[in-house]
Amino acid sequence: MKRRAITAVIGLLVLVPLLGLIPSTWTWNPRLLETLTTTVSMIAVLTLLNHLIGYVTGKAIAFRAGRLIRYMELLISLPLFLPVLLLSFGLYLTWIRLGLADQFIGVLLVLLLPTLPYTIRMYTNAFQALGEQMMEQMVLIEPSRLKRFLFLTGPMMRSAIQSVTLLVTVIALSQYALVTLIGGGVVQMIALEAFPLYSGNSLVAAKEATIWLLVLPFLIYFVQLILLEGWVQVVRRLLDGRYDSARQ
Length: 248
Fold this sequence. Notes:
Elements: H1 2-19, H2 31-63, H3 67-81, H4 84-98, H5 104-110, H6 112-130, H7 132-141, H8 145-156, H9 158-174, H10 177-183, H11 190-199, H12 203-240, H13 242-247
Helix pairs in contact: 2-6, 2-9, 3-6, 4-10, 5-10, 6-9, 7-8, 9-12, 11-12
């Protein structure tokens, strides 16, 4: 009874604020199409970079020891201890000198600051959960790194991959100050579209933009879920030799 009451209270705390976001009328803001294209492109490239860097770094931290690894871990964890906005001010001045300010790639690189430490931590924990012995057995079974990832390591780390994608998506969508500072209003993401609409009393358009903030993580998560499930099914069929029997 007590558990149900706590669940009901938590559900109300989450759902009640969302009820106020439902627009009474639905109109399509034409600016949203360009903003959504930029937002989805940014999240796709940012997620890919997080997976690539996080996978390699997390594996090194999980299984290697030494002073260099400890320094690397400390350096990567710095954004967790320092305000990201503080680091971004320094980066902003550097980006101006390099010509990366107000550019897609400039925003992309600065968004690595709040996302990469969590990604590396998740991959480190995932590799530690697999264990060094399991990784050594995988090397014996499949020497090729690419095939080992496609057939063994990747499917076994599906939960970590899903969590990283969802986390990166939510953090990227929530970054208003960083995108405004580095993007200079030229790189438009959905959060930059929503905030001015609220301050300008355009509530219908603001709610429409906010709905996309809510919907995008779910869409990306379920698309990824379908792709990962398809990946695992293909690997199972290949390992079972069904493709070979089908060809015969």
